[in-house]
Amino acid sequence: MRIGLLLPLNISYAPYLRIYTNILDKMDGVEYDIIYPDKKGLHEPAKHYFDVQTEDRVSKLKKVIYYYQYSRFLVRVLKQERYDKLIVFGQQVAVFIHRYLSREYKGKFIIDYRDLGLDQKCKGIFRQILGSCAHIIISSPGFKKYLPEGENYILSHNFDINILREALKDVRTEPYQLSQNKGKLEILTIGSIRDYEQNSAVIEALGNNDRYHLTFAGRGYAAADLERFAKEHHVENIVFTGYYDKSTEPDIISQTTFLNIFYPRRPTHETAISNRFYNSLIFRKPMITTVGTIQGNYTEKYNLGLAITNTDNLSERLEDYYQTFDSVEFEKQRTRLLNEFKRDYDIFENIVKKFASCLE
Questions:
Q1: N or C: which end of the chain has fewer CB within 10 A?
Q2: Alpha-carbon gap, residue 280 to 275, rounded angstroms
Q3: 3-class DSSP state for residue 91?
Q4: Is 194 exposed, middle or buried, given 0-12, 13-18 or 19+ CB atoms closer than 10 A?
């Protein structure tokens, strides 16, 4: 069985690829090629890559032109290689080559869907794609709100299953306290620093409050503006650490009290589950999320932190959560949700194995 894995971006920016390759690598008789557009000019090793660079923050027209060019490259490669089956990552790739997929690979390709995008503008085409694919994999149940009804959506969360299994084995039976940073509650925003409005509201709500310390670790298009906002408001209990090596992430998270995942109420944000969300479960860190989002729904259902609509009285609410924190109940609810995600993975793994074998 030869399978083509079609990416919409560089390999190093697609951590979800490993979720599949970890399964395929263990299967006898299965070979696969990774095909990707080298948007960053990294020249990552793969049998085929589209050697044209582009920036992330370009106009929509330029993005359309880029993916049109990439789609023509893809079709040439697919005609040359004649793979038995395909796994297509990203709705933009599927939309641009939908005619070829429907004609040459009907019932022989998987769509892996991890964010809203071009499919929302090309709903008719995307329905045709769903009618032609073998399976549609989504990374969050929140996407179902914006996807066609009546389809069998399979969940594939953005985590390393081995890390999740270790987290489930790590059972704490004795009560424990949440971490503090030199007697202060540490609020950590880690990863890509975006969403200026929400993060500036958090800074304003907790800035220069002696009970709190705020850390922003990572880069992103809002980082510089947020740092400027903090300086203009003379906020002293805050630090922007910038880039960090991924290997240091566990140490950074272990020192925090709450993980900040306060996102805007936009379709792209309210539907997705962030890496911070999974890290909050793995590292036992209550989170700050947004009411009405998929992350907020999980937070409220399992009492894993605060789901807020705005930052009014945020200091008081965080303090109250900290003072009434019940580690035994937190462990119970955390384990429940991790087991739910584990069951989702088991279903996904079986689907991929069957797809990549001769059983389907």
A1: C
A2: 9
A3: helix
A4: middle
Find all residues with CB under 8 Å of 241, minimum gap 6, and list them: 215, 216, 217, 218
Distance of CA 126 to the CA centre of its chain: 22
Helices 327-356/294-302 angle, 10° precision: 130
User: Residues 48, 50, 54, CA angle at the centre, nearest 5°?
Assistant: 150
Q: What is the mean pLDDT of each run of 10 residues along the chain (360 residues)?
A: 96 93 95 96 94 87 91 96 96 92 96 87 86 95 91 93 93 91 94 94 97 95 95 96 91 96 92 94 97 97 96 97 96 96 97 85
CA-based angle 211:213:218, to the nearest 5? 160
Structure tokens at 239: 């630090």
d(CA 19, CA 5): 12
Contacts of 253 (CB under 8 A, 6+ apart): 188, 190, 259, 279, 283, 285
User: Is the pTM for the entire model greater than 0.85?
Assistant: yes
**How far apart (Å, rounded) are the C-alpha atoms in residues 333 and 280?**
13
Residue 140 CB burial class (10 angstroms; 0-12, 13-18, ≥19): buried
Interatomic CA distance for residues 315 and 85, integer angstroms: 53
> Of 97, 52, 48, nearest to 77 (Cα)?
48
